[in-house]
Amino acid sequence: MSLGVVIIGRNEGERLTLCLESALKATQHVVYVDSGSSDDSVGNAKSLGALVVSLDLSLPFTAARARNIGWRTLLEQHPEIQYLQFVDGDCELCPEWIPVAREFLENNPEFAVTCGRRLERYPQRSIYNQLCDIEWNTPIGEALACGGDAMFTASSLVATNGYRDDVIAGEEPELCVRLRQQGKKIQRLEQDMTLHDANITQFKQWWKRTRRCGFAFALGKYLHGAPPERHWVGETRRALLWGAAIPLLIIGCALITPWALILTLVYPLQVLRLFSRSDISPKRVRSYWALLTVVGKIPEALGAIECFWKLKRGQALNIIEYK
């Protein structure tokens, strides 16, 4: 069965080399979609044997648009391709992943997508990298959505017209909603899939990435929040409650009586609740996870509010970058 690999990236340097080499070991049908790199990414990809497409940056950039151009280019040149593996340029494909994923899709035609375990390459470099590694570890089995690294059947992408070009974050779950509406399924396998280098070493990077998550929640709710999907309705509600409504309530009450500041204790209590209910180890990482999960509701709320504000005013939805 013919396989193609779509890689997207910008200024990934050595990480892109590892990504390309791992993809070219799996198939000769590899396309790299570059979004304005100023390093030698394009030349490097060509020298390694990948097909290179430079994204038209006169249009707003989204990862969704880059991925769409990638898979459509591959199918135009190689219409026999039946499976498409997407991978970000800061990731390396694990050698065991491709045959396992392809075999699963071959034997289970009701599934349109499969993904595996995305591992952080350097989790010890920062607590933020460690939190990413925890975030990637979602339950094994049938899932509602996949992430940026996943293998799709080509027919499912053609049937849905792929990703929505205008979705600046959360484009993979949005596509999975539409696939499930067509009766298709998504499966997460118990198999290492990619090594990812988040390279988040500063609090401001984590803040921006978390704000982008809030933006994605709100946009997902806007697009598919109605029943029965109710896509990211709960996530958006929690972000707005803990990151905006409760703080505003406390400030408003404190203007009446300073005793209202005792209400701020709800936040450390929430941290303790999350810590006690989690089995993350070691305890130091669990402590950071609980604390940043609660603190993160503030940038999530800001991202959600920004999204709703721009949608209401008909403004362009610009990508939020943290690297």
What's the tally of helices?
12
Please state the CA-atom Rg, rounded to the nearest Å: 21 Å
In the CATH classification, which architecture of the largest domain applies? Alpha-Beta Complex
CATH hierarchy class name of the largest domain: Alpha Beta
What does this structure look like?
50% of the residues lie in helices and 17% in strands. Strands 1, 2, 3, 4, 5, 6, 7, 8 and 9 form a 9-stranded mixed sheet that branches. The longest helix has 24 residues, at 233-256. The protein has 323 residues and is α/β, with parallel strands linked by helices. Helix 1 links the parallel strand 1 (3-9) and strand 2. It has 12 helices and 9 strands. The chain folds into 2 domains: 3-200, Spore Coat Polysaccharide Biosynthesis Protein SpsA, Chain A, CATH 3.90.550.10; 220-313, no CATH class. The chain has helices at 14-24, 41-48, 63-77, 97-107, 127-136, 154-160, 171-181, 203-224, 233-256, 266-277, 283-295, 297-313, and strands at residues 3-9, 30-34, 51-54, 83-88, 91-93, 111-120, 141-143, 150-153, 185-196.
